[in-house]
């Protein structure tokens, strides 16, 4: 089995920063893509950022130049540094890990609230 655990969410004021972490553990042969998604209240799940095993990165237009995704392969961990946060960034953030020979594994989600 594979476990995926996110951390780092919380309440922050507009303009503030947060760093999310997501660690995968268990029976892992190799991790391919790693990514962050979010779901705001009454909205659909949307892609925030992804990073491939080769380091290719993609961002949603709404977070470009504010968010930075990175990964630490030795720890099977992906990070999301979020700066200049806006109220519209409020959502539950989910981590998705694409694992060779196993498929996708999702974390339980971590709530980010941007409010004054």
Question: How would you sum up this structure, described in words?
Answer:
With 116 residues, the chain is an all-beta fold. Helix content is 0%, strand content 57%. The chain is built from no helices and eleven strands. The strands form two sheets. Strands 2, 4, 5, 6, 9, 10 and 11 form a seven-stranded mixed beta sheet that branches. Strands 1-3-8-7 form a four-stranded antiparallel beta sheet, with no helix packed on it. A hairpin with a 6-residue loop joins strand 4 and strand 5. The radius of gyration is 14 Å and the shape is globular. The protein starts with a strand and ends with a strand. The model has no long low-confidence stretch (mean pLDDT 96).
Identify the notable features of this structure and list them briefly.
0% helix; mainly beta; 4-stranded antiparallel beta sheet; globular; 116 residues
Helix-strand pattern? EEEEEEEEEEE
**N/C terminus separation:** 40 Å
Instruction: Estimate percent helicity.
Output: under 10%
Discrete helix count: 0
- Could you describe the largest sheet, including whether it forms a barrel? 7 strands, mixed
Number of strands: 11
In a nutshell, what does this entry contain?
With 116 residues, this protein is an all-beta fold. The chain contains no helices and eleven strands.
Helices and strands in order, then pairings?
Elements (H helix, E strand, L loop, with lengths): L1 E6 L2 E3 L5 E9 L4 E9 L6 E6 L5 E3 L7 E6 L4 E6 L8 E9 L3 E4 L3 E5 L2
Parallel strand pairs: 2-11
Antiparallel strand pairs: 1-3, 3-8, 4-5, 4-9, 5-6, 7-8, 9-10, 9-11
